[in-house]
Design a protein that fits this description.
Order of helices and strands: HEHHEHEHEHEEEHEEHHEHHHHHH
Number of helices: 15
EC number: 1.17.99.6
Enzyme class: oxidoreductase
Structural class: alpha+beta
Strand order of the largest sheet: 1-2-7-4
Largest sheet: 4 strands, antiparallel
Mean pLDDT: 95
Strand content: 5-15%
Number of strands: 10
Number of domains: 2
Low-confidence stretches: none
Pathway: tRNA modification; tRNA-queuosine biosynthesis
Main location: cytoplasm
Organism: Zooshikella ganghwensis
Distance between the termini: 65 Å
Shape: elongated
Length: 361
Amino acid sequence: MTNIAPSQTDFVLLAQQIKLWAKELGFQDAGITGIDLSEHEAYLKSWLAKGFHGEMGYLADHGNKRSRPDELVPGTISIISVRMDYLPGDTQAVKVLQSSSQAYISRYALGRDYHKVIRKRLAKLANKITEVAGHFGYRAFVDSAPVLEKALAEKAGLGWIGKNTLLLNSKAGSWFFLGELYTNLPLPIDAPQVTKHCGSCQACLDICPTDAFVGPFQLDARKCISYLTIELKGAIPEALRPKIGNRVFGCDDCQLVCPWNKFAKPTQETDFLPRHKLDSSDLTTLFLWTEEQFLTATEGSPIRRTGYKGWLRNLAVGLGNAATTPEVIAALNSRKDFPDDMVREHVLWALKQHHMKTTGC
């Protein structure tokens, strides 16, 4: 990062303009912070030492670059943190969760991939800054590099990290994405919120289907359904499969019960609206997709991350937890000879669950 903005720039005024431009570009909020993440670095190292990251080895890679922004992008002085709401209108989340025949997909993944949407807006924001301040050094990030985005957003005053380890905002809940612009601009920084407004509430901890929270602000990702259905590439531990229910890509339970999400507002971004009826599809319908159908329906979608085999694995677990019907059994039998050991293992497990339900043994 070598470009330097003109010294005559009024950075106080520029910071105010940046926040206005961010909202004009579709972000619901923006804040500015510095690069000291020493407190969060200590937490990260402790969390990694406990092995809570599971197979997500990338979280331990890159040395201290994740918690030291100026090591990731030399020359970084200040960071612009933004948030964008993603929750569609009424997606009947609770209703779908209570229907064992339907597939529950985390609400963030129902529409197009947020990485591209937000990155393009950040590029436009950088262009607006350039028009006023001249060429400057920056890099944009959207959950795609060693960046402690929640820590940066908290320090920038966009909310506080709650007991469920998500960023919470008193006016918007937690249904939003985050993005960052690392810059070499000496912008005035915003004050973080002094208080974490979770109080004595622990609804998020109590609701977790797999008991992934080992305590407030402490998540063992190895038990988290989002990790199990997205990040884990091998077999899902058998003891956890019944607890996953019909959640086939991610989990929103700790957000659905959070009292602060009563303030969440529906997204205005059409790119985040549900596609291909993914907010209300039956498990059997999705399980019978060919790989070509999967690739077509998930083009430009975060769901691609799990891959076709991971998709079938997750759906097999969902079908194993579903009510026993001829349609469910037929769907599972159609895949019991699938040419992949992992998929077959989960299909056979699902069929065994139905056998036990119907025979009692």
